[in-house]
Amino acid sequence: MIYLNGKFLPMEQATVPVLDRGFIFGDGVYEVIPVYSRKPFRLGEHLSRLQHSLDGIRLQNPHTEEQWAGLIERIIELNEGDDQYLYLHITRGVAKRDHAFPREVTPTVFIMSNPLPAPPAKLLVSGVSAITARDNRWGRCDIKAISLLPNILLRQLAVDAQAMETILLRDGLLTEGAASNIFIVKDDLLLTPPKDHRILPGITYDVVLELAETHGVPHATREISELELRTAREIMLTSSTKEILPITQLDGQPIGNGTPGPVFQQLDRLYQAYKLEVMRGHAPRQ
């Protein structure tokens, strides 16, 4: 069951006009929200990021935070599975094809749920591989835009190389993954690039930094050079659907000793414990 423009209905019954600007121009934004034990994970932060994306494309939010919460609660109820991930998709709406913003057009709002499997345990033990590529995306990567063709092409490079992710480099600096944020460990310090227009502000990224701060893991946010990436003791990726995964091979070369390192293992334990507290309703509201 999905939600589309005021109606809850089966996916196969949902249709969108061909002149929707999301279809014609990719003129819209999206958000992904993990759900654990039928509870959305850090909903407030996800809705704040959605608002940031809407502001970035100058599209008025079609719903209040309370209305979004109600729609999300209903979608969770209508779909099976304690663990789900929700996909929210908002476009500027249906209008004649013209690059300029149309006037008095109702945005298209779509929400769907998908199963959210836990990362396979074997990947937490063995780690995953990644490749690098030049970051050739546009200059507003902080907007979660639905026009994802550059990310798709970069992600496909990893698929072609039988790797989990493509790590992106711009002007000799690490930005992020094609569909993830990236952390490294260098000289016992957990490092990640700062939030700016070059990266998507990840919710899991925030959680990892909060856990590091709370539990005394030495960390910093700063620019990371390509050399630092390639000589890191540990590399890990974070995302709402993959949580935290260790990268143990980069461009065919082992990272550290080729196995998940102690900082990843500590952060993964802390993340799983925090997630359990959230599921039980005991974690403080961020």
Spatial separation of the terminal alpha carbons = 30 Å
Q: Point out poorly predicted stretches.
A: none
CATH homologous superfamily heading of the largest domain? D-amino Acid Aminotransferase, subunit A, domain 2
Task: Give the total of beta strands.
Answer: 15
Shape: globular
Order of helices and strands: EEHEEHHEEHEHEEEEHEHEEEH
Structural class: alpha+beta
The share of residues in extended strands comes to 25-35%
Report the total helices.
8
Question: What do these coordinates show?
Answer:
There is one protein chain. It is built from 8 helices and 15 strands. The protein has 286 residues and is α+β, with helices and mostly antiparallel strands. The protein has 2 domains: 2-115, D-amino Acid Aminotransferase, Chain A, domain 1; 121-280, D-amino Acid Aminotransferase, subunit A, domain 2 (D-amino Acid Aminotransferase, Chain A, domain 2, Alpha-Beta Barrel), CATH 3.20.10. The strands form 2 sheets. Strands 7, 8, 9, 10, 11, 12, 13, 14 and 15 form a 9-stranded mixed β-sheet that branches. Strands 2-1-6-5-3-4 form a 6-stranded antiparallel β-sheet.
List keywords for this structure.
transferase; 9-stranded mixed sheet; EC 2.6.1.21; 30% helix; Aminotransferases class-IV; D-amino Acid Aminotransferase, Chain A, domain 2; Aminotrans_IV; BCAT-like_C; alpha+beta; 8 helices; globular; 6-stranded antiparallel sheet; D-amino Acid Aminotransferase, Chain A, domain 1; 286 residues
